[in-house]
Structure formats: C-alpha cells, structure tokens
C-alpha cells in the first residue's frame, strides 16, 4: 500500500480549556491523489479537522502528519474557502502572481504559470479584471486557480461551492473533477451536501457531533470520470445516499437533535444547512 499523504492518529482537539471537545480519537489516512469528503452535521468538527491538517491548529492529543512530518502553515497545502478571499486591489492575474511571488518565482515564470491556470479555470480573458467585476462563481474559480498555483499535493476545501447558485455549483464540480484528474492533487473536501459528496469523492467520512468523531467511512464505487455521465442516474448512487441518510437518522436517534439533522440532510433536496 502507498504511504499516506496525510495521517491522523487518535487526534483530539478541544477549545475553551477543554469545555468544548471539538474532535475525539480521529484516526484517518488520506492517500496521494485521493478525493475524500468530510460530511456531518454542523459543529461535528469538519473545519477543525482541515485546520489541523494544514497546521493552523495543533492537536491536543494524538498526531497529525503530512508526508511524515507535523504540518506547519507553510507546508505545501492549499486551502479554498466558501468565499474566495481575493485581494480586491489586485487584478485577477495579480491575485495569482502574488502567491507565486511569495514563493520566489521570477516575473516571467509567475506570469506564465498564472495565465496557464486562468486558462485551466476558463478565465483567461479576465486576467486584467478586478475581483469586484466578477460573479461569485468566477471569483471561486480564481480562488481555485490561486490555490493550484503553488502546485500543492493536497488541496483542502471548506464548503467551496456552498455560496453559489445551483447551476454554477454543477459547473464548478465538474471542473474541479477535471482538474483533479489532470493534476493528481489529493483533495479533502468539506460539504453539507450529500449528493455533492457522492458525486465528487472516492471516499466519504461521516462525522458525528458532540464530540466530533468518525461515525463511518464509505467508499464511493461509481465509475469515473463522473463529469461525462451523470452518476446520479446510477442505482449505486441512490444506494449510497440511502445508506448515508440511514446512518444519519441512526445518529439522531442516539441523541443529536433530529430537526437539525433533518434540515441538514433532507434527502429530497440537495440543499445544505
Ligand atoms: N476557535 C474556537 N473556539 C472555540 N470553539 C471552537 C473554535 N473552533 C471550533 N470550535 C467549536 O468546535 C466544534 C467544531 O467546530 P467546527 O467549526 O470544526 O465544526 P464544523 O463541522 O465545521 O461546523 P459547520 O458545519 O457549522 O461549519 C464546535 O462546537 C465549535 O463551536
């Protein structure tokens, strides 16, 4: 078996002097080139898990290793958030070149790589535009291009499409899968949307709240590439969806609030929290 890219062993994380146990006993490996989604109700620790992986937080128990070492905010892990967080005073091109300048690339190399990435996310013609001139979906594309600019072997994505309209979300999911297939970047993707998780991932980690812990891990055995034929028509998609839904119901019977979970994971819609 290939050595994991990210390895968490018995990780615990708490806040407020231990009064909030955000995560407890998390053991999880992410392989190179793998696409893994983290799902679970609000407060189950998904974002905390990402922040532990990129070294922004330190675990209180257990170990987090990236390529065999404790991650630091400078480890080559790129992060994409719900909002693109672009620098408003820089052009689209400038936003990408900026991160490459921090890495010490020459002016020519910066320009070449940035324009190539803008082409990859369909925004070559908007290189000179400023963030406020772009739609939310276009801004997210720039955020994605900027994250990929540093050629990370891991991309950590925290609900990157949650604030976008349904059509843009669909397009960006397909584009993300194409980029992932082409570049071989491992992706850890947080979402509240079960359909999105099944569509994108090879593996889904379902977390339960209070304290955040792994409820189960499911392998998504659907044919790839998934942007070519809609996997939602596949009976295995429905089976996975039902499986996740049943597990979430079982969780709710174990004590979490049924209403919150039903709202978060209404199986009749793709809406999130
Ligand atoms: N900096 C912090 N200080 C105090 N408590 C925190 C902090 N960060 C997270 N928590 C708590 O840790 C728990 C997990 O939070 P986290 O944001 O990781 O959950 P989440 O699953 O990402 O939630 P959501 O789906 O709502 O974004 C929550 O109870 C939250 O209130």
How are the secondary structure elements laid out?
Elements: E1 6-15, E2 20-30, E3 35-39, H1 46-53, E4 61-66, E5 77-80, H2 92-102, H3 107-120, H4 136-149, E6 154-158, H5 166-183, E7 186-190, H6 194-200, E8 203-208, E9 213-219, H7 235-253, H8 258-264
Helix pairs in contact: 2-3, 2-4, 3-4, 6-7
The protein binds adenosine-5'-triphosphate.
Distance, first to last CA = 37 Å
Quickly name the level 1 CATH class of the largest domain: Alpha Beta
Tell me which CATH architecture of the largest domain applies here.
3-Layer(aba) Sandwich
- Read across the widest sheet, the strand sequence of neighbours is 5-6-7-3-8-9
Ligands, deduplicated: adenosine-5'-triphosphate
Task: Explain what the structure shows.
- 36% of the residues lie in helices and 22% in strands.
- The protein contains 8 helices and 9 strands.
- The protein has helices at 46-53, 92-102, 107-120, 136-149, 166-183, 194-200, 235-253, 258-264, and strands spanning 6-15, 20-30, 35-39, 61-66, 77-80, 154-158, 186-190, 203-208, 213-219.
- It has a 6-stranded mixed beta sheet, sandwiched between helices.
- Helix 2 (92-102) packs parallel to helix 4 (136-149) and helix 3 crosses helix 4.
- The longest helix has 19 residues, at 235-253.
- The two termini are 37 Å apart.
- The structure holds adenosine-5'-triphosphate.
- This is ABC-type nitrate/sulfonate/bicarbonate transport system ATPase component.
Summarize this entry quickly.
The chain is an alpha/beta fold. The protein has helices at residues 46-53, 92-102, 107-120, 136-149, 166-183, 194-200, 235-253, 258-264, and strands at 6-15, 20-30, 35-39, 61-66, 77-80, 154-158, 186-190, 203-208, 213-219. The two termini are 37 Å apart.
């Amino acid at each position: 078996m290939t050595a994991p890219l990210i390895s968490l062993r018995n990780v615990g994380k708490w806040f407020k002097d231990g009064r909030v146990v955000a995560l407890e006993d998390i053991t999880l490996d992410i392989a190179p080139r793998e696409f893994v989604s983290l799902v679970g109700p609000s407060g189950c620790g998904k974002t905390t898990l990402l922040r532990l992986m990129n070294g922004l937080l330190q675990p209180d128990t257990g170990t987090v290793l990236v390529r065999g070492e404790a991650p630091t905010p400078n480890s080559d892990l790129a992060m994409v958030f719900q909002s693109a967080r672009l620098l408003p005073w820089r052009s689209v091109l400038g936003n990408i070149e900026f991160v490459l300048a921090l890495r010490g690339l020459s002016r020519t190399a910066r320009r070449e790589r940035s324009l190539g990435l803008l082409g990859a996310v369909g925004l070559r013609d908007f290189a000179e535009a400023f963030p406020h001139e772009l739609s939310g979906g276009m801004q997210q594309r720039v955020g994605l291009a900027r994250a990929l600019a540093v050629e990370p072997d891991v991309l950590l994505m925290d609900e990157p499409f949650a604030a976008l309209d349904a059509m843009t979300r669909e397009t960006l999911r397909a584009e993300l899968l194409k980029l992932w297939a082409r570049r071989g970047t491992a992706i850890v993707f947080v979402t509240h949307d079960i359909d999105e998780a099944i569509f994108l991932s090879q593996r889904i980690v379902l977390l339960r709240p209070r304290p955040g812990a792994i409820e189960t891990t499911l392998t998504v055995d659907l044919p790839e590439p998934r942007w070519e034929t809609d996997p939602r028509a596949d009976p295995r998609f429905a089976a996975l969806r039902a499986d996740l839904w049943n597990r979430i119901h079982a969780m709710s019977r174990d004590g979490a609030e049924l209403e919150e979970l039903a709202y978060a994971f209404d199986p009749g819609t793709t809406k999130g929290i």
